[in-house]
Design goal:
With about 70 residues, this protein is mainly alpha-helical. The protein has one domain. Helix 1 packs antiparallel against helix 2. About 0% of the residues are buried.
Length: about 70
């Protein structure tokens, strides 16, 4: 049984949340700080956090599990 539909659903939901929360975060930080530079720095921190989370992903193990499931 393939789980691709499950992962596509997760991808779809997360992209919708990102489309709402990213601009909201940008606007809130710009409103409170008075500068869009702080907002861009904040968005950059999200990118760094994402990169750090991706460092914990074991791609070879995931590939093996995907091949076993198929």
């Amino acid at each position: 049984k393939s789980r691709s539909a499950e992962f596509f659903g997760f991808y779809s939901i997360s992209s919708r949340f990102a489309a709402i929360l990213g601009p909201l975060f940008f606007a809130v930080v710009a409103q409170f700080s008075g500068s869009s530079r702080h907002s861009i720095l904040g968005i950059g921190l999200f990118f760094i956090l994402g990169m750090l989370l991706l460092l914990k992903v074991d791609f070879t193990r995931g590939r093996q599990q995907a091949l076993e499931d198929d």
